[in-house]
């Protein structure tokens, strides 16, 4: 009996709460409509222009939803690049994105005489829409006088549309875009070196082939390099969903580190780094390591520190190698929190590596440990005993 009364009380209170929620929802959705109407009457022309630009799929960084009857086809296409190719192909190459910067960043003023930059983008069998959206976002959101050229380095792709068609398209763009071809598959590091060698800008900016740059991304990077040419700078890497291509702002409260297996990891920014910046989150954030895909470096400084390790294969470990190199050669590695660039993060890699993924990464990591870690390399060998056992020195 007691139990029955208890149940009744619980049920009635839940019901009351549900009713309150419904009331609140209705009330606030009504209110939104009022605000809309007010805006329309205030700035009808501006509103119309803005809403037109924001209507298409994915505009303002919104998620793309694929219709039910297309889901099967979508799953098939997903396998090609390990992201939702169908969604990407639906989104305009020049889609609009939200301004996700901290308020303190939006009012910063930069010098007129910033160094200019060459952009180097390495690709291998990239999708047309993601590659060209990267290029268009660079062109549309970079001051023209700061953009020397864009170099697209093709690491031996096998897709037809990345051949002549890409070169012809590049010629129609209002910025100099050149396509360089590797004769055979050499991997990210050697392809980046090939691109870097061909640059003429004062700064080299490396980007991945499936990025989107947001408003004001470039100036703060170049301004920091102008201040100190030995600072190597990364934007905040925002997340573009591999499922929906929704644009989601990354955090300025995490930075790069690594574990003793020499995997790159994100960690919370420690209090000492917040204190060093006197709590101003818009100031450059010193980071032990970088994710590696996106960064800017003074071209002559890049040469001074010996560029990348050309003995590393394909991909993996090169981001930590570059990070250790920078810190140990008198430079600094920083995340510029006023610069935001989106990146499509995938759960799996669509590429096959000659010799297998594990093999390549192990070799690269051994080079990393032997060259830059002195006695600390022992931690790595203890944690990864398989690698420690093969005593042949890295070649
Ligand atoms: C993208 O380009 C098209 C065609 O040039 C143009 O109509 C559209 O307004 C542009 N979109 C944005 C968001 O700038
Ligand atoms: C960029 O800087 C280089 C070196 O100072 C200069 O030769 C080049 O003309 C500049 N490019 C642009 C687009 O201003």
From TrEMBL:
Molecular function GO terms recorded: carbohydrate binding; metal ion binding; polypeptide N-acetylgalactosaminyltransferase activity
Cofactor: Mn(2+)
EC number(s) on file: 2.4.1.41
Compartments in which it is found: Golgi apparatus membrane
Naturally occurring in which organism (per UniProt): Salmo trutta (Brown trout)
Coiled coil: none
Protein name (Swiss-Prot/TrEMBL): polypeptide N-acetylgalactosaminyltransferase
InterPro entries noted in UniProt: GalNAc-T, Glyco_trans_2-like, Nucleotide-diphossugar_trans
């Amino acid at each position: 009996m007691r139990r029955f009364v208890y149940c009744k009380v619980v049920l009635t209170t839940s019901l009351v709460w549900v009713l309150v929620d419904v009331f609140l929802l209705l009330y606030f959705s009504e209110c939104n409509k009022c605000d809309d109407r007010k805006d329309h009457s205030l700035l009808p022309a501006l509103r119309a222009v803005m809403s037109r630009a924001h209507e298409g799929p994915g505009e303002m960084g919104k998620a793309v939803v694929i219709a039910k009857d297309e889901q099967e086809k979508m799953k098939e296409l997903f396998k090609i690049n390990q992201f939702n190719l169908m969604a990407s192909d639906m989104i305009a190459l020049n889609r609009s994105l939200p301004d996700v910067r901290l308020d303190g960043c939006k009012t910063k003023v930069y010098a007129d005489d910033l160094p200019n930059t060459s952009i180097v983008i390495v690709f291998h069998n990239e999708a047309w829409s993601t590659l060209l959206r990267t290029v268009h976002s660079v062109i549309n959101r970079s001051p023209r006088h700061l953009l020397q050229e864009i170099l697209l380095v093709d690491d031996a792709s096998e897709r037809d549309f990345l051949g002549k068609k890409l070169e012809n398209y590049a010629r129609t763009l209002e910025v100099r875009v050149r396509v360089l071809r590797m004769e055979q598959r050499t991997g990210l590091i050697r392809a980046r070196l090939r691109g870097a060698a061909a640059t003429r800008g004062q700064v080299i900016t490396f980007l991945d082939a499936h990025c989107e740059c947001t408003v004001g991304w470039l100036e703060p990077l170049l301004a920091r390099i102008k201040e100190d040419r030995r600072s190597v700078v990364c934007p905040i890497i925002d997340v573009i969903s591999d499922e929906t291509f929704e644009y989601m702002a990354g955090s300025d409260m995490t930075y790069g580190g690594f574990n003793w297996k020499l995997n790159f990891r994100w960690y919370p920014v420690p209090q000492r780094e917040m204190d060093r910046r006197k709590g101003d989150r818009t100031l450059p954030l010193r980071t032990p390591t970088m994710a590696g895909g996106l960064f800017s470096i003074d071209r002559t400084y890049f040469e001074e520190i010996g560029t990348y390790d050309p003995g590393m294969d394909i991909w993996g470990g090169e981001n930590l190698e570059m990070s250790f190199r920078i810190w140990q050669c008198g430079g600094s590695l920083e995340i510029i929190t006023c610069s935001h660039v989106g990146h499509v993060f995938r759960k799996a890699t669509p590429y096959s590596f000659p010799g297998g993924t594990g093999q390549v990464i192990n070799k690269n990591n051994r080079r990393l440990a032997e060259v830059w870690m002195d006695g600390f390399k022992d931690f790595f060998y203890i944690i990864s005993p398989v690698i420690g056992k093969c005593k042949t020195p890295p070649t």
